[in-house]
Amino acid sequence: MEGAVDQENIVYGRNAVLELLREKPGSIEKIYFQFNTTHPKLKEILITARRQKLITGKARLEKLSLIAGTTKHQGVCALISTVTYYTIEELLSVPRNTAPLLVVLQGLDDPHNIGAIIRTAEAVAADGVVLVEGKGAPVNAVVHKASAGALSHMRVAKVKSLVRSLEFLHANGIRVIATDMEAETNYTDADFRLPTAIVLGAEGSGLAPEAMEYCDETLRIPMAGCVESLNVSVTAGVVLYEVMRQRLL
């Protein structure tokens, strides 16, 4: 593709990015545009990216030049994923555990949290981490670094709809569990020896109401201090290690 460059998995240039959108949209993690663009081809790229529910962002020309490693980016850069994504069916077809264990992320904005959760999921030998297309931060170099190498071992699935994915898990005998400060059941009282999917919502806003409707159980992590909640990656760590504790008994 003319205008493409292998600079930290970046494709730049209007024609190159547009071709990438047409041929391999699933490989794109995020597209950066220059501010206040009026070029018709850039508008076409933006419309196509939004139609495919890809993550887009605006950047100044200086930042685009820094990302692309050149000033010849023509106002657009695309970040390409280095991760091989699976389907949920593939995660469940060859499970690591007798009772499958998945971690489902609704759309976390902090790549450090995503990486930390992937690191913990790999530490407890989860079967996979599920992400939602177009939601949250891209799986980029920050996620790789925060995962401390775990991303190279953990299978990651990408789905178009969180609700439909939860429906699929239900249909395949997977219990869907979320955490909620208002829940009555303590997380240590749940039976994690059964096939389980732990669903974690976005930072601040938590899990969407429509997703909560598909949860079989909501669990509470007790808080004895002054703070009201834990960081989402810490929540994941607390619950996942309880899963492993029960399964090792």
UniProtKB/TrEMBL annotation:
SUPFAM superfamilies: alpha/beta knot, L30e-like. GO terms for cellular component: cytosol. It comes from Chlorobium phaeovibrioides. Coiled coil: none annotated. It holds the Pfam family SpoU_sub_bind. The keyword Cell division does not apply. GO terms for molecular function: RNA binding; RNA methyltransferase activity. NCBIfam families: rRNA_methyl_3 (TIGR00186). Keywords: Methyltransferase, Transferase. GO terms for biological process: methylation; RNA processing. The keyword RNA-binding does not apply. This is 23S rRNA (Guanosine(2251)-2'-O)-methyltransferase RlmB. Residues 10-86 form the RNA 2-O ribose methyltransferase substrate binding domain.
